Amino acid sequence: MCGITGYIGGNKTTEVLIDGLKRLEYRGYDSCGIAAVDSKNSLYLKRVSGRVDALEKLVREEPVKGSHVGVGHTRWATHGAPSEDNAHPHTDCTMQVVVVHNGIIENYLDLKDKLLAAGHKFKSETDTEVIAHIIEEKLKSLHVQEKAMRADMLEPVFFEAFRRAVADLRGSFALSAVWAKCPGMILAARLHSPLVVGLGKGENFIASDVSAFLKHTKRVVFLNDGELAAVRKDGIDFYTFQGKKLAKEPVTIQWDSTMAEKGGYKHFMLKEIHEQAGAVENTLRGRLLPLGGDALKAELGFTAEAMRGFSLVQFIACGTAYHACLVGRGLFENFGMNAYADFASEFTDRAKLLAGGALVVAVSQSGETADTLFAVSEARAAGAKVLAITNTVGSTLTREADYVLYTHCGPEIGVASTKAFLGQLAAIYLLAGHFAAARGHLDKTDARRYAEELLKIPRLIEETLEKEAEIAAIARGFSSSEHFLFISRHINFPIALEGALKIKEISYVHAEGYAAGEMKHGPIAIIYKGMPLLAVAPSSRVLALVAGNVEEAKARGADVVAIVDEASQKVVKASRYIVLPRTDELFTPLLSVIPLQLFAYYIALAKNCDIDKPRNLAKSVTVR
Ligand code: F6R
Fold first, then answer.
1. 32 catalytically annotated
2. What is the pTM of this model?
3. What is the DSSP secondary-structure string of 431-457?
4. How far apart are the CA of 210 and the centre of ligand 1, in A?
5. Gap between the Cα atoms of 32 and 56, Å rounded
6. CA neighbor of 580 nearest in space, from 568, 598, 570
7. Contact 487, 536 (CB under 8 A)
8. Model confidence over 403-438: pLDDT tens digits?
9. What Cα–Cα distance (Å) separates residue 112 from each residue in 139, 142, 623?
10. How far is CA 40 from the centre of its chain?
11. Which residues are bridge partners to 70 per DSSP?
């Protein structure tokens, strides 16, 4: 899982590549590099073990002379440790062919054995390097008199060598290659890893994600699986892996590159926490009233009859998105509808058991999570219909799904997901409301009340965010704690899981989320005097039970912070409170997660952690 950039056109190659890599660092950041072809058609290659800032410094110290074409890469290691040798771009033996790659080449060991037997010398432990050597082999096999040919005459040869090389690869890849002898063209290919081409004026771009080049162009073409692109400065041709030419229309991206910048906040994560009211508002806009009406149905392609026809709803996702799914399961069950939620990575066999008429709801911010995509393909193979809930237009998930419901959160850059989670919840509340209305679980009056309550949430999120200073102070008091417990019940149990996940990923401390009722069945044994325990306890039908579980934990020494509203504060006995505005029990997850996000943020800040790019993580997990 890595980020790719490519540029061809003017004389700003290294700036465009490096700026793009900075925007793609969320995809991986353990090493990075760029390659460009200079004015004498020699290869310029710079790589570092570490972040793009270090690469930028190196490139400034030793700039390339007169380059119009190049590729770049930021890496999240899969094969081979994070090191300069394993950093991309990778080259062939002649140092003329250069490749960047995101994904995994499953048959690379077989390929490498053959290449070694043919005399190739390898410089890295990566699977990617085989691709550069295969292209070299294919170029040789085409028997071209390179010296006798002009660079542009070599383009069909390079294309054919690349196409044949791609045909030898198994696994998943977004890849891009440059041949120094033929610097008028970059080639790109995609199979199960995202790749998008940006169309400029006299210049064109390649990237794993549009944010890499949005400040240069918003006109883009998304590659589909099995497609190749030949990118020149004044035009792009698309082909199938078999070499058949394709006609592909560009689309215009609505995001603005400044939307992806920090806007005065210290971290993207904090900015994104503060954008959550907007994320919910944008996701709900125009889709809610009247529930059971036509707005959302027209968008999804669902009729009320189809909604009545599904026998069950099966949610699948990973990480934070999975926690949104658990809330979704609770909501659907609340309305008396059969619903299940599973980790996408644990879904494989269960997919085969899906009853006919199942609707699989796959939730993914990026729409590129490999586990989720694989689970979707299994579900489809089993005959289920798939609805994608995603934030990313044109992502692979949107192309794999039968129906798509976009969250409209804008780009999420912080690796720890916050506003995308709120957007996912909003989309799931929409869906549940529409299903419940269509299936007669909500009558007209209740449907209106549900919609009205949901429409109040953005304002209540803003009110909740006003507690930031209080939450920060509480968090600072716990900044040296090494263990945290989060408990809740029913529809807020997933929020306890999410609170623990947020602390783990950005502060690197141990945290567990538990169903409050489960504590007494074992986990209560780990409580020691002063252990921080955050109890999510808004007013609800399970409040008395949560309050009892808090008492049990306190009796064993836990130092309890309770997330309450004014009414539930009177019932739960804690040493500190974070008081939320009141909403109907069903909607409380949309508010109760916010103090936990802020709590995690301020713990990580006190610990001086790299909040937007936590160690060992990447924003988009495109390997299984
Ligand atoms: C946690 C986090 C991850 C993602 C997970 C799924 O803060 O961001 O757990 O939620 O990797 O990613 P998407 O939603 O892109 O499928």
1. no
2. 0.79
3. HHHHHHHHTTSS-HHHHHHHHHHHHHH
4. 19
5. 10
6. 568
7. yes
8. 999 998 888 889 999 999 999 999 999 999 999 999
9. 17, 20, 21
10. 40
11. 7, 36
Higher pLDDT, 474 or 24: 474
Q: Is 283 near ligand 1, meaning CB less than 6 Å away?
A: no
Task: Say how far apart CA 315 and CA 321 lie, in whole Å.
Answer: 10
Q: Which residues pair with 512 in a beta bridge?
A: 485
pLDDT per residue as tens digits for the range 575-593: 999 999 999 999 999 999 9
In the reported structure, the alpha carbon of residue 599 is separated from the centroid of ligand 1 by a whole-number distance in angstroms of: 19
| Bond preceding residue 63 cis, omega within 30 of 0 | no
Domains of the chain: 3-257 (3.60.20.10), 261-464 (3.40.50.10490), 466-611 (3.40.50.10490)
The answer, yes or no, to whether residue 297 has pLDDT greater than 80, is no
Q: In 118-223, where does DSSP find H-type helix?
A: 129-141, 155-167
| Shortest-distance atom of ligand 1 to CA 420 | 14
Q: Which of 272, 320, 505, 620 to mutate to test the pocket of ligand 1 (most atoms within 8 A of CB)?
A: 320
> 544 alpha carbon to ligand 1 midpoint, in Å?
33
Which position has the token pair 């069903």?
586
Strand segments (E) across 30-81? 31-37, 43-49, 69-75
For the stretch 214-224, pLDDT in tens is: 999 999 999 99
Q: Pick from 126, 214, 231: which is nearest to 177 by CA?
A: 231
pLDDT at 259: 66
Choose among 610, 590, 589: nearest CA to 505: 610
Q: Report the alpha-carbon distance of residue 242 to residue 159 in Å, rounded.
A: 12
pLDDT: is 186 or 211 the higher one? 186
Weakest mean pLDDT among 64-68, 270-274, 390-394:
390-394
